[in-house]
Specification:
Elements: H1 2-18, H2 26-37, E1 79-81, E2 104-111, E3 114-120, E4 126-129, E5 134-135, E6 140-145, E7 149-157, E8 163-171
Antiparallel strand pairs: 1-8, 2-3, 3-4, 5-6, 6-7, 7-8
Length: 174
């Protein structure tokens, strides 16, 4: 027990000796007096900054750069005809409430030798599309489906009071 007391007493005595106040700060006072005696320097003026010009975003009406691009192939051969007109009495299909640019072919399924296209609408829903189905706001009718492409014929106003067919296609988005 005496041994433990002596072992504990030695560090306590060392700490007390180290913490005794000695007021010998003469070297520190000499240094601060020397630094204060030096002449002050010139402070550089604050640099002038250019006035901030706010950026105005002018492409708000365009397609978002974060959306998957849709390749729409406008084919030549748009022709106006007196016999071409949309069937206004037909019941509209769900994909006819979306523009062609909002639709994307995201897949294809083959059943009994026939292709079924998987088309995603602007809301993220996927629909099965067969040959003969309608899609798009311009009375678009699916005329053929291949493994990588969906061919559509739209009926659009010709500008002269009639209607004309406009071929379009949606390609498979990978």
């Amino acid at each position: 027990m005496k041994r433990i007391k002596s072992i504990c007493t030695v560090p306590v005595l060392l700490l007390m000796a180290a913490c005794t106040p000695t007021n010998d700060f003469s070297d520190l006072q000499r240094f601060t007096t020397e630094v204060r005696g030096r002449p002050g320097g010139e402070i550089e003026p604050v640099p002038e900054f250019k006035e901030y010009e706010a950026f105005t975003y002018s492409a708000a009406g365009f397609r978002s750069p974060f959306d998957i691009p849709i390749r729409i192939n406008l084919q030549e051969g748009m022709s106006a005809s007196q016999n071409v007109k949309p069937d206004l009495d037909r019941v509209k299909e769900p994909l006819e409430s979306f523009a062609i640019a909002e639709l994307a072919m995201v897949g294809m399924v083959e059943r009994n030798g026939h292709y079924v296209a998987l088309v995603e609408n602007g809301l993220g829903e996927v629909h099965r599309v067969l040959r003969g189905n309608y899609l798009g706001r311009n009375f678009g009718r699916v005329v053929s489906i291949s493994a990588t492409q969906l061919d559509i014929v739209e009926i659009v106003p010709s500008g002269s009071g009639g209607w004309m067919e406009r071929p379009q296609s949606l390609t498979l988005v990978r």
